[in-house]
Every structure is written in C-alpha cells, then in structure tokens.
Amino acid sequence: MNRASEIKKVLTIALLLNIGVSSLKLIYGFMTSTLSMIADGFHSLADAASSVLGLVAIHFSDKPSDDDHHYGHFKYETMAALGIAIFIGITSWEILKHAIHKLISHETALFHYSGIPIMIIGMIINLVLSRYEAKKGKKFKSLVLEADAYHTASDFWVSLSVIISILCIKFGILWADPIVSILIAIYFARVAIKVSKETFMALSDAAYIDISRVQRIIEKVPGVISGHHIRTRGKPGQAFIDLHIQVSPDTDTYTSHKIAHEIEEHIKDEITGVHDVLIHTEPYPDPDDVA
C-alpha cells in the first residue's frame, strides 16, 4: 500500500472504534445523567468525526500536482488537522457549558457499577489506538494521524477522571461530576490550542528547518564557494527548501548542475521529511551583488 492508503486504513480503524466507544458512553451517560460520562462520550464522537475529516483530507492531499496546485495538495492534510483542533475546541465549550448548568441547577446523577467497566474498556481501546496512530503518524510523517493520536490519547486520562467522578457519585460527592467536567473542558482547550498552533505554523509557511543546518550541508560539497538566501517552509514529509549557491565563474553548466544535484541529495539524506529543494546557482563574485 502507498502512504495515503495506509493512513486511510488507520483512520478507518479509528473511526469504527470511536463510534463503538462513544455509543457505550453516551447510552450509559444519558441513562444515569452522569455528565462527565456524557462529556467523554461526545468527545469520543468528536474523535470519530475527526477521523472522517481526515479520510476526506487524505483523499484530496494524495492527488498529484496540477495546473491549480503546482506544489501538490499537501496542505489539505494540514487543514484537516486544524479541523480536528476545531472539533476539540467545540467539544471543550459544550462540556464547559453543560457543567456550569449542572452546578447551577443542582441536577443529580445516578450511580451504576456498569459505568466503570465501560470506562475501562474505553481506556484500553484509547491507549492501544493512540499508540497505533502515533506510530503510523511518525512513520508516514502525517500531521493528521499525529493530531488524531494526541486527541485519542487524551481520552485515556479523561476516562480515568470520569471513573473518579463515578466513584464520587457513589459516595455522595455530587459536586465532583461537574467539577471534573470543567477540568476536562480546560484540558481539551489546551489540546486544541496546541494542535492549532502547529497547523497555523505550517499553513502560514513558517520556517521549518534551521538554516544553519542547511548551510553546513552546503559547505561540505566540493565546488561550492558559499550558500545564502536559504528559506524553508512546510512540515515533516512535506518540507520545501530553496537556496542560492555561488560557484566559480569558470564552472561550466554541466558541473554546476551536478553540484546542485549533489547538494539536493545530501539535504534529503541528512534532513528527514524534505520533499523538494530548489537551488539557484550564481557566479562568485555575483555581478548583481557588486552592482
């Protein structure tokens, strides 16, 4: 399978598992009025929605360059990661809103032992799934899988807090359920901000690679007098670098091309995730600079 097919496979598995887990949590939550369980159930449902978003984005991002997208369609995947961050942010707001309402209305929740095994099953699924997504995300340099893995991993700790909330209901500590939900909402907000920041950096073409690292690679190649105007952008697996090199004015076109090709190979070998390197060759000294 190619990269896109493998990522789609991971997202499909995540989608099916999240639908199953969210169904169990929501059914129990609404039956017992346990807000923290309902909150976690909706978060699992948001995970499923983010998987759908990821599947759509990967379908488009895998398309080759065309007349409208000369650099490919990579950023569809980055935009999907931003969409996941938005899902997390919306979930955070909804949880916070319902928790405050429950604190004000003094609505009570019911305790059932069945809630604990449901949460434990969900925790096990979340832990295994998040590690699986993180492993595949790292392998395929996929921001969507990495964001979804981070989202899924947060469910493990949320589920643990819900178990604590359920036990507090058992012992009559009714205020613990909305308080735990508020803490969950704050945590989700932090995750949303973190993922959003990473995607904004990629979408705004922020510098991705330390240019001094690129400079050192250039200087090791025979025939290069100097390198400058180094610029980088993108994200792992989809990074772009463009730079200028200066060679002796006596260097013929064939040799200049060979030097540029050697630099490109060294950069791609030594810096993981570089998709393309654009090199502009100049004589030294450059008449334009002297002027």
Task: From the structure above, extract its key features.
291 residues; elongated; Alpha-Beta Plaits; mainly alpha; 9 helices; Alpha-lytic protease prodomain-like
Overview of this protein structure:
This protein is mostly helical. It folds into two domains: 3-203, Alpha-lytic protease prodomain-like; 211-290, Cation efflux protein, cytoplasmic domain (Alpha-Beta Plaits, 2-Layer Sandwich). The chain has helices at 3-32, 35-61, 75-105, 115-140, 143-170, 176-203, 211-219, 253-270, 287-290, and strands spanning 226-233, 239-247, 274-283.
What coarse outline follows from CA principal-axis ratios?
A: elongated
Whole-number mean pLDDT: 82
**What is the percent of helical residues?**
55-70%
The largest sheet is:
3 strands, mixed
What CATH first level of the largest domain would be assigned?
Answer: Mainly Alpha
The CA-CA distance between the termini, in Å, is 54 Å
Number of helical elements: 9
Task: Give the strand order, joined by hyphens, for the main sheet.
Answer: 1-2-3
CATH topology of the largest domain: Alpha-lytic protease prodomain-like
CATH architecture of the largest domain: Up-down Bundle
Pairing-aware structural class of the strands and helices? Answer: mainly alpha
SSE pattern, N- to C-terminal: HHHHHHHEEHEH
Number of strands: 3
Q: CATH superfamily assignment of the largest domain?
A: Cation efflux protein transmembrane domain
Which residues form runs of ≥5 with pLDDT under 50?
none
What amount of the residues lies in strands? Answer: 5-15%
Integer-rounded radius of gyration = 25 Å
Number of domains: 2
